[in-house]
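lol forgot to send this yesterday, sorry. struct tokens for the thing we talked abt
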């Protein structure tokens, strides 16, 4: 059974940092492209950052220079380091694994950026 379990969400003040983790089980992480998405109620799920099997990364413009996605295939884990958090980063963050036509999602972790 494939599971992606996100953790690390919570309340952070504007300008603060948070590190999200995605622990994968039931899959061989190194053969999947991994990503973090986020969703605010009433809006579409948005791609935040991707890290491909090659290790290359892509970020949505709004988080460039503030967020860093990384992976450790040996630990079957992906992280999203969030620095200089802004109120508009408030959302449920989801971990995604994709390979060809196969896709898996975690259940999400809530991040709230507020003073």
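and heres what i got for the seq, position by position
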């Amino acid at each position: 059974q494939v599971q992606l379990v996100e953790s690390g969400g919570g309340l952070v003040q504007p300008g603060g940092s948070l590190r999200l983790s995605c622990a994968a089980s039931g899959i061989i992480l190194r053969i999947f492209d991994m990503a973090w998405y986020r969703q605010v109620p009433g809006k579409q799920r948005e791609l935040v950052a991707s890290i491909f099997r090659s290790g290359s990364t892509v970020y949505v413009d709004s988080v460039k220079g503030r967020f860093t996605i990384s992976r450790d295939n040996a630990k079957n884990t992906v992280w999203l380091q969030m620095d200089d958090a802004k109120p508009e980063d408030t959302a449920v963050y989801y971990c995604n694994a994709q390979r060809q036509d196969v896709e898996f999602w975690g259940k999400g972790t809530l991040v709230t950026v507020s003073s």
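The chain has no helices and eleven strands. anyway ping me if u want another try
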